[in-house]
Write a structure and sequence with these properties.
The protein is an alpha/beta fold. The protein contains 20 helices and eleven strands. It has a seven-stranded mixed β-sheet, sandwiched between helices. Strand 10 and strand 11 form a beta hairpin. It is globular, with a radius of gyration of 26 Å. It binds nicotinamide 8-bromo-adenine dinucleotide phosphate. The site of nicotinamide 8-bromo-adenine dinucleotide phosphate has 22 residues, from helix 1, helix 4 and helix 6. Its EC number is 1.1.1.44. Belongs to the 6-phosphogluconate dehydrogenase family.
């Protein structure tokens, strides 16, 4: 074999990743695709890459040096299983199969276990940054064994995005850890996008500014603590004018948000782990709500706030109003990231992964959609307190939330009075107040559960587990602990 790495699956992601690999000193890249045409096109379009094309799995295995290393970039699901089966057939113990697709982490855990039986290494790797990232430098989140990382590490470091001089890749943890972290990354991305959309909506309806004027607001925000790729592209999208009509493009785009399912996975997983990622959940549900035109159609005549309530949004001091929204956005963003890291912490505990949370924030600084300077603050917070139970309680974030909180409350109250939906702003604030509360009404819920289901409760004033004989004489008895 002459190639030191191979790529299977040459659609947009795979061919860009193959070109990225080929552009690095010392790499020779073997390429294989199910249908021959994509391979032929890639090799013809990029003679400079020196690709070694293969047209069968046998030929592909033969063209690779040992230990053979192949990255799979096919449609996640059955296609991944089909390719793994073929590679396992032609590879040998010690070889490495990397799945760079958007696999569900539980599939990766299953595949890793099955492939390991053959003596071949299997690495599930999250790849972030879309086509652009794959070509010029993605953020890479590999899982898998330490043995695979020893071989893969140098190659992955050479193709990853670079942030502050550091490659955006780390060995996240064993088996499905990489795909788990990539999943939560996408969930946080949903929340970040929804928060930005709510800020835009409030500014637009509150001040009557045009999309182009609001683009200037976002461009200005991008010079401060909100600096991020998503804020930057928001300004670009808002500034775009439709060539045909001369109207702002954003006013011509159908207002139904699509989703490929990774936000839903993040929320489903959080539900089973018992982690309250309410900001991510609201963002995911907001996309669902937008995508039901039939329900929105029949709901259009539902009553909104009375005239005087709509005055809630009559803004006198435009600059002050915009600054409040900026602060509400920043505070809600801190909540969303704190919740996402909470999910990673809980996932690591559940699945036995040793994940360095500060490193995760660091490898998201380049290549990926949520890249931002803000992530440095998260790395610093975990460096200072590695076992931090709630990210937003780190001193830097407490300061930021203290600065933001009165504006945040104003914005949530204003949106409620004016009848403008701000689900992510308001649920983030509710989460914050829930964490802060000295007593929660969960005590009443425990009482209700005990009433209808004898689920028992604990008391604040003495140890033990108790049940009240609700349908009897209502005396309290000590009970077995049934949780
Ligand atoms: P697609 O997700 O559109 O998949 C197309 C590729 O899968 C083609 O190479 C196709 O081969 C191959 N394939 C299929 Br479909 N069924 C197959 C089978 N049974 N056996 C072998 N190959 C099969 O490609 P993509 O958009 O480049 O994405 C690749 C992966 O990267 C996905 O898992 C995606 O979720 C992930 N990802 C995408 C992005 C992004 O921004 N697009 C970002 C990060 C990760 P063919 O040519 O013969 O049909």
């Amino acid at each position: 074999g002459t190639a030191n790495i191979g790529v299977v699956g040459l659609a947009v992601m795979g061919s860009n990743l193959a070109r990225n690999l080929a552009s690095r000193e010392g790499n020779t890249v073997a390429v294989l695709n199910r249908s021959r045409s994509k391979t032929d096109e890639l090799v013809a379009a990029h003679p400079e890459a020196g690709f070694v094309p293969a047209f069968s799995y046998e030929e592909f295995a033969g063209s690779l040096q040992r230990p053979r290393t192949a990255v799979i970039m096919v449609k996640a699901g059955g296609a991944t299983d089909a390719v793994i089966e073929e590679l396992v057939r032609v590879f040998e113990p010690g070889d490495i199969i990397v799945d760079g697709g958007n696999a569900l982490f539980t599939d990766t855990i299953r595949r890793e276990k099955a492939v390991r039986e053959t003596g071949i290494n299997f690495v599930g790797m999250g790849v972030s940054g879309g086509e652009e990232g794959a070509l010029n430098g993605p953020s890479l989140m590999p899982g898998g064994s330490d043995e695979s990382w020893a071989t893969l590490g140098p190659i992955l470091r050479s193709i990853a995005a670079v942030a502050d001089g550091e490659p955006c890749v780390t060995h996240v943890g064993h088996d499905g850890a990489g795909h788990f972290v990539k999943m939560v990354h996408n969930g946080i991305e949903y929340a970040d996008m929804q928060l930005i959309a709510e800020a835009y909506d409030l500014i637009r309806r509150g001040t009557g500014k045009s999309p182009a004027e609001i683009a200037d607001v976002f461009a200005e925000w991008n010079r401060g603590e909100l600096e991020s790729y998503l804020i930057e592209i928001t300004a670009e999208v808002l500034r775009q004018v439709d060539a045909g009509t001369g109207r702002p493009l954003v006013d011509l785009i159908v207002d139904q948000a699509g989703a490929k399912g990774t936000g839903a996975w993040t929320v489903q997983t959080a539900l089973s782990l018992g982690v309250p990622v309410s900001g991510i959940a609201e963002a995911t549900f907001a996309r669902s709500l937008s995508s039901h035109p039939e329900q929105r159609e029949v709901s259009r005549e539902l009553p909104g706030p009375a005239e005087d309530s709509r005055d809630a949004l009559r803004v006198d001091d435009v600059d002050a109003f915009i600054e409040k929204i900026r602060l509400a956005l920043y505070a809600s963003k801190i909540v969303a990231y704190s919740q996402g890291f909470d999910e990673i912490r809980a996932g690591a505990a559940e699945y036995g992964w040793n994940i360095d949370l500060g490193r995760i924030a660091a490898i998201w600084r380049g290549g990926c959609i949520i890249r931002a300077q803000f992530l440095n603050r998260i790395t610093e917070a975990y460096a200072a307190t590695p076992e931090l139970p709630v990210l937003l309680t780190a001193p830097y974030f407490v300061d930021a939330l203290t600065r933001a909180q009165s504006a945040w409350r104003d914005v949530v109250a204003t949106s409620a009075r004016a009848g403008i939906p701000a689900p992510a702003f308001s649920s983030s604030l509710a989460y914050y107040d829930g964490l802060r509360a000295e007593r929660l009404p969960a005590a009443l819920i425990q009482g209700q559960r005990d009433f209808f289901g004898a689920h028992t409760y604990k008391r604040i004033d003495k140890p033990g587990t108790f049940h009240t004989l609700w349908s009897g004489d209502r005396t309290e008895i000590e009970a077995e602990d049934t949780h």
